[in-house]
Amino acid sequence: MKLFLRITFVFGLTLSFSACSIFFGDSGMFRSRGKDYLTSGPIKPVEVPEGMSVTSLEELYQVPNLKVNDEFGDRLDLGEYDVPRPRSFTTDKSGVAVKIQSQLGKRWIFLNASTSQVWPQTQSFLSSNDFEVVRSDANKGIIESGWMQFKTDLTHMCRFRIKIEKGIHTDTTEVHVREVELPVGDQLPQDFTWPENSDNDEREKFVVDKLAKALAESVDNKAASLMGQNVGGRERVEYANDNNEAQLKIHLPWERAYASIAASVKSDAFKLWEQDGDRKLFYLGYEKNVEKKKGFFRKMAFWSSDDDSENGVAEKAKYSLNDVLAKLEDKPSVRKMFGDMPGIAYGDDLPGASGYLLIVRTSIEDGEEVQSVLVRDYRGEKIAASRSKEILRLVRSNLI
Questions:
Q1: Per-residue pLDDT at 53
Q2: How far lies 3's CA from each of 6, 13, 83, 299, 320, in Å?
Q3: What total number of domains does the chain contain?
Q4: How far apart are CA 74 and CA 246, in angstroms?
Q5: Is the separation of the CB atoms in 369 and 288 below 8 Å?
Q6: Would you call 143 exposed, middle or buried from its count of C-beta atoms within 10 A (0-12, 13-18, 19+)?
Q7: Which range among 106-115, 226-235, 264-273 shows the weakest confidence by mean pLDDT?
Q8: Residues 241 and 390 grouped into a single domain
Q9: Closest CA relative to residue 353, chosen from 331, 373, 323
Q10: Residue 270: which domain range?
Q11: CATH label of the domain that carries residue 214
Q12: Residue 5: its pLDDT value, please?
């Protein structure tokens, strides 16, 4: 019996090896062809029948003649295009910064999240805190509550309006809260105009603080509402072109825009020498590529003045803004820009003068106040388009 089992085992093993060689060996049906290229020879050229010509085959990638414009609407010459520095970014894409900002006696909530993310969470906040919503307009970004009463104040009825707007920078949002109140017993108006400022500043602050905390806990960069994509209307800041001159258009009231521009030109490569809110002018110095720090020998250089700026721009201008405005270039383009502005005169160039004039012109578009920012040299003349755009881009990036 044992002999039979041994013979059977040997026979089976032999058969299995034979089968492997039949199917998978060098001569097998499913042999490996991984090294066949080693024995391959030249391929005979394809014979083309008589009367037909032969041309070589090439991969052709035709580049279309595109007309490319920059953000100002000017034709962009790719041969002279200067690749800008990449914008800084945070490594945590899910984090949302929420803070309460205040300026010119007003406060608002700032978020580095889009309105499509903020809109649904604001509605959720109102619902969870028993605010009765009587009006909701996503296009205008407005939510209005009905009349309500706080347990801590039984003598007044109050009402709130929350306005959600696109921020100055892309994918940022501003949330503004307004409060009105009436003594209990007074007839509630059916229609009224919301005041510029809240009736009760403390109550406005209470709702702003509570809403900011709720948004900080609920808003993230992973979820958004399709309904909220158009909340707040158009972008607040855009580039434009006026008579072949680059400009920055800011859709904000003058007081808010003035404070934001003033803060912008105090950073990076700028030196704000003087500003005039009445004439809507900023007199400043500017130097490109200023990210340099003083080295050891620079710090030890006793012969250099402490007043010298690290970026090559003087801390103070050689002449005052009034001196500069009294010596503008007498040209039609300069007269048209400065018009009947007080203190303007025309004369010879000031020796050693330098710098730029940031000019703001206010207009009304679609019932909104718009500020147009342009750059001229210290004599009021137009400057190179590339330098003007460079300055305006930097101003725009630093707006708050």
A1: 79
A2: 5, 16, 86, 100, 118
A3: 2
A4: 9
A5: no
A6: buried
A7: 226-235
A8: yes
A9: 323
A10: 237-398
A11: 3.30.530.50
A12: 53
Taking phi over 0 as left and psi of -120 to 50 as alpha, with beta for the rest, 199 belongs to alpha
**Token output for 278:** 């009445």
| CA–CA separation, 391 and 400 (whole Å) | 16
Contact 388, 375 (CB under 8 A): yes
Q: In sequence order, what are the beta bridge partners of 176?
A: 163
pTM for this predicted structure = 0.69
Verify that 259 and 221 share a domain, yes or no. no
CATH code at position 306 = 3.30.310.170
**pLDDT per position as a tens digit, 319-343:** 999 999 999 999 999 999 998 899 9
Beta strands in the chain (DSSP E): 98-103, 106-111, 133-137, 142-145, 156-166, 173-183, 237-241, 246-250, 270-276, 281-286, 356-365, 368-377
Give the side-chain half-sphere CA count within 13 A for 354: 13
pLDDT for 300 beyond 80? no
* Residue 253 backbone phi and psi in degrees, to 5: -60, 155
Kindly report, residue by residue over 162-183, the tens digit of the pLDDT: 999 998 888 899 999 999 999 9
